[in-house]
Write a structure and sequence with these properties.
With 133 residues, this protein is mainly alpha-helical. Helices cover 57% and strands 8% of the residues. Helix 3 links the parallel strand 1 and strand 2. The protein is elongated, with a radius of gyration of 17 Å.
């Protein structure tokens, strides 16, 4: 509720807190979004991060749990949630600064290569060969 209060106080009419959504709704939100911001402190692998990369959304994420691994050198990570004005400013820059946006998306495209099935298969085969050779 605190986030909703802040949105109301700042009169930000284009912020939506969806709650649970079905798959089709989720895909529509990815298509409509300009940036993906993750404030999760308990993110597992980070499927929404990879989905955002696939949907070519620049990512701004809190650096916790598995997020740094999932992101690698891609997107932008932050360590302090108490700097909300700076986080918001960075999100704005990721939307309006075309050069920055292009660089972020390029880093995310590169990171996506790591998650391709053929890359995962090769890594898995190398791991198994080390165990059984």
């Amino acid at each position: 509720w605190e986030c909703q209060k802040l949105v109301n106080r700042l009169r930000l009419g284009d912020v939506i807190f969806t709650g649970r959504v079905n798959h089709d709704e989720l895909m529509a939100y990815y298509k409509l979004a300009d940036v993906f911001v993750s404030m999760s402190e308990h993110e597992g692998f980070g499927v929404p991060l990879v989905e955002s990369m696939i949907h070519r959304l620049p990512i701004l994420a809190f650096s916790a749990a598995a997020v740094p691994f999932t992101m690698g050198e891609a997107g932008i990570l932050f360590n302090n949630k108490t700097t909300l004005p700076e986080i918001a400013e960075m999100a704005g820059m990721m939307i309006t600064d075309s050069r920055l946006r292009k660089e972020i998306l390029a880093s995310q495209d590169e990171r996506l290569e790591y998650f391709k099935p053929e890359t995962i298969k090769k890594s898995w085969e190398q791991c198994l060969s080390q165990l059984f050779d």
